[in-house]
Amino acid sequence: MASKIIDVHPHIISNDDQKYPITPLGGKRSQQTNIVWSRKGVIRGLHFHELGQDDLFFCALGMVRVVLFDRREDSPTHGVAWSIDIGEDNPCAVYVPGRTAHGYESLTDCLFCYHVTHEYNPDDENTFPWNDERVAHLWSTDAPILSARDVMD
Fold first, then answer.
1. pTM score of the predicted model
2. What is the pLDDT of residues 105-131, one digit of tens each?
3. 2 falls in which pLDDT band (50, 70, 90)?
4. What is the rounded distance in angstroms from the CA atom of residue 15 to the CA atom of residue 95?
5. What DSSP string runs through the chain?
6. Which of 1, 51, 54, 66 could make a disulfide contact with 117, Cβ separation 3.0–4.6 Å?
7. Pairing of strands 126-127, 63-69
């Protein structure tokens, strides 16, 4: 069996008087942080960045299912699909290496956050079908709410 595509980093959800560290992006600096509110049933992705943008995902409120497909030809996990549920019931951050197709499904209404190692570049925004046969079995729904960007024929 192939090893995992990504690194999962547990963190402790703390009280207001405590702090917890944000896991570094493979030693790289975050260039941008994105925060998204999604309703239950939404699937975003899959997306990938040929220029190698890394992502660090976490779900601040609610629960999401992160789905990944390793597109990196030089990777020992090339062609592997993988998922993990993260959020209030499983507080952790998921590090996603560049060129890996990634997306998430809102299992509940959620506040989803991600740090990225490159600023937004519309020329490096690529899509991979959410319902591709290699990843379709990982979602909890086959009739999601999709953005125009994520609808593929």
1. 0.85
2. 999 999 999 999 988 898 998 999 999
3. very low
4. 24
5. -PPPSSEEEE-----TT---PPPPBTTBPP-EEEEEEE-TTBEEEEEE-TT---EEEEEEESEEEEEEE---TTSTTTT-EEEEEEETTB-EEEEE-TT-EEEEEESSSEEEEEEESS---GGG-EE--TT-TTTGGGSS-SS-B--GGG---
6. 54
7. unpaired
